[in-house]
Automatic annotation (TrEMBL):
Protein name as it appears in the record: Phage abortive infection protein
Lineage: Bacteria, Pseudomonadati, Pseudomonadota, Gammaproteobacteria, Pseudomonadales
Domain of life the protein comes from: Bacteria
TM region(s), chain numbering: 33-58
Organism from which the protein derives: Pseudomonas gessardii
Keywords assigned by UniProt, alphabetized: Membrane, Transmembrane, Transmembrane helix
Amino acid sequence: MKRLIFLLTLIFIAVYGLYFYNFQNGLSEKQDVWGQFGDFVGGTLNPILSFITIYILYRTIVLQQESLEKTSAALTLSQNTYELSRTELSKSSEILVTQNKLIQLQKFEGAFFELTKLTIEAINTSSYTFEKREYKGSSGLDGLIYDLFKKIENQKNTSWIEEFFDDNENFFSLLKLTSGIFSFVNKSSLSPEEKNSYLSLLTSILPSGSITAICFVKIFTDWPLSSHFVDSGFFDLPGVSETFEACSVLEKYKTT
């Protein structure tokens, strides 16, 4: 802008200087001379001023266009940055959700395997008495369940079962510990498929005698905690369903 003002000043000086240089008669008192002077100045400066005005208008339009382009580019960049930020936030959120799931799963597995370990240890150290015979550990539990079913088959009734349970309170304690694992899995936030996977794993880990004992209690007693096994779908698991079906053959001898 300063350069433009300087240029206009030079033009005015040049025009007036040119006039007075050629006509050195001083300031005239004649009206027609002043008219001629005005025509000279107007004829000389008007085209120049018009050109400068057009040039200024052109430059203004160009500057506005450049400004709009820069503004548009800045808005585009801002929008891209915003979209990138949203994408990064979304990814961060997904990562946090995944990490949280992994942490929860690790906590679940830690508790699951600890409970399973305690249950197996309890089975291996347990002892029972039946018909004046003592049964110990996992293998003893297998023999006990076999003898229980054999007596039901021979006597064709279960009126004596209550007496057996009274003499072997640890039998239900052991099953209560086992049912706790199933209850823990049932109440977890795992998906149905994941729950079924862990229950299948648990079934494969537990001694076979404990599986048969659970079936025995479900068929011949009204033990409330059997619901934990039922709700988990335990009796529908591969291997368990066949055992339960085989045990159910003697259900007809259940004494009500």
